[in-house]
Write a structure and sequence with these properties.
The protein has 447 residues and is mostly beta strands. It is built from three helices and 32 strands. It has helices at residues 3-21, 279-283, 432-436, and strands at residues 33-45, 48-55, 64-67, 72-78, 86-89, 113-118, 124-130, 147-153, 163-172, 175-178, 183-186, 189-192, 203-205, 210-217, 224-228, 233-238, 241-249, 252-254, 259-265, 271-276, 287-292, 326-335, 344-347, 358-359, 365-372, 378-382, 387-392, 395-402, 404-407, 412-418, 423-429, 440-445. Strands 12-9-14-19-16-17 form a six-stranded mixed beta sheet, with no helix packed on it. The two termini are 34 Å apart.
């Protein structure tokens, strides 16, 4: 039994014992939100059903909209047959509420209920999802339908748009596929909001409208490119944080767990496809129809110009940034275990749970130097903090705040964060396979 499984099982047992011993005081007051984890036969298209686990019998789970700074209580009932947990991605909340067993959050035993209670911050587009270990079981963890959008409404923001739409990207029926060196994860189907292209209601718009798209990549492992045929998208926020320089693009790239807010001015009447720019993924289902009022006909797709994605244009025009108090080098490598096996991943030569827990000091600014020596791209996520991207392969930048950054193979990126949320904080690759096979570590500091 590995340490992560041991922690999960013991956390679940302790949570179940606590629930059985006495009715908890929080049960005396109603929750603001209720989530029920349960198996679901999801029809992604007529005759195409995937068997998964989801929240409240739907994919994605319910949109949670909540005012910034107002306390929230969320009751989670686990009606599945195995322990589960919910991670509140991008929120600045205590470790025991964050939804990660590595940080000390309890697993929720099968049949048990747990209340998450915290004050949602910061404002913007966050999300929630399972943080369960999957390993070789590609029916668990991020491979399932356990994800949903969490929007923390900023104070006094009128919103310069006429309509907003939340869209989640996901891939289904994962299986192990051999590559030239090791095993990778492939999928049979791709969806937007749990439905394949052509099998859900279109997004209906009017000419002249400003449409705000909230895009979330909830895939367990795949990067996705999204475009709206015939239109440009103006990126206004990344990972819920306003970008210093809103920029128009023909397509956006989202690594696993990344979010993009983009405004589209509807100036091209017709019936269009919003979907993956790569044809195999559109054919696998990743798309949705956008229909102007009084327009009919077959949805049209226009291939956008080839785009090389770069975070730099969205950052501040000024490259100067505050110097950190300390630099922390992190080197990422993989260990090959032979054909038919997943690689093991290391940080500074060690795989979790044997990675070093790095001790920090409250209030200090730290720079993570993320040295990717592998050939894989890694969507790197730091729990319970927002970081500023300060360098991309030697090119300085400032002002771009995120909680997930895709670091391409054989490159180095640097991000700064302030130690202002005491406790344990998990750092990991958001590719489920990489995370499960060692690509994690912890930071710790006290107030």
């Amino acid at each position: 039994m590995d340490r992560r499984t041991f922690l999960a099982q013991n956390g679940a047992a302790l949570a179940a014992a606590a629930l059985d011993s006495a009715k908890p005081s929080w049960a005396q007051t109603p929750a603001d939100v209720k989530l029920e984890i349960a198996p679901l036969a999801l029809e992604i298209a007529p005759g195409k059903v995937v068997r998964t686990v989801a929240y409240n019998g739907r994919v994605p789970g319910p949109l949670i909209r909540w005012p910034q700074g107002k306390p929230i209580a969320i009751d989670v009932l686990n009606r599945s047959t195995i322990p589960e947990i919910v991670h509140w991605h991008g929120l600045w909340i205590p470790s025991n509420m964050d939804g990660s067993v590595e940080e000390g959050s309890p697993m929720i035993a099968a049949g048990a209920q747990f209340r998450y209670a915290f004050t949602p911050n910061p404002a913007g587009f966050r999300w929630y999802h399972t943080h369960a270990f999957a390993g070789h079981n590609l029916k668990r963890g991020a491979y399932t339908g356990q994800f949903g959008c969490f929007y923390i409404e900023p104070k006094g923001d009128p919103g310069a748009y006429d309509q907003e739409v939340f869209l989640t990207l996901h891939d289904w029926n994962a299986y192990m596929s051999p590559s030239d060196t090791s095993m990778e994860t492939a999928y049979d189907y791709s969806t937007i909001d749990g439905r394949m292209l052509g099998y859900h209601d279109p997004i209906k718009v009017r000419e002249g409208q400003r449409l705000l798209l909230h895009l979330l990549n909830a895939s367990a492992s795949l990067v996705h490119w999204i475009a709206l045929a015939g239109h440009e998208l103006t990126v206004v926020a990344m990972d819920g944080n306003p970008v210093p320089t809103p920029t128009r693009v023909r397509a956006v790239r989202l690594g696993p767990a990344e979010r993009i807010d983009a405004v589209v001015t509807m100036t091209q009447p017709g019936v269009w496809i919003l979907g993956e720019t790569r044809e195999p993924f559109r054919k696998a289902g990743m798309g949705i129809v956008v229909e102007y009022a009084n327009q009919q006909g077959k949805p049209q797709w226009i291939e956008p110009p080839e785009t090389l994605w770069d975070y730099q244009p969205f950052a501040s025009a000024q490259s100067a940034t505050r110097q950190p108090d300390e630099m922390i080098p992190l080197r990422f490598e993989s260990k090959f275990h032979g054909a038919g096996n997943f690689d093991t991943w290391t940080i500074n030569g060690k795989s979790y749970p044997k990675t070093d827990t790095i001790m920090l000091r409250q209030g200090r600014r730290y720079r993570l130097q993320m040295i990717n020596r592998s050939t894989d791209d890694h969507p790197l996520h730091l729990h319970r903090h927002t970081f500023e991207v300060t360098s991309l392969d030697g090119k300085p930048l400032s002002g771009l705040n995120k909680d997930v950054l895709v670091v391409p193979g054989k490159t180095t990126a640097e991000v700064d964060f302030t130690a202002n949320n005491p406790g344990l904080s998990l750092f990991h690759c958001h590719n489920q396979t990489h995370m499960d096979f060692g690509f994690m570590m912890l930071f710790r500091y006290n107030s």
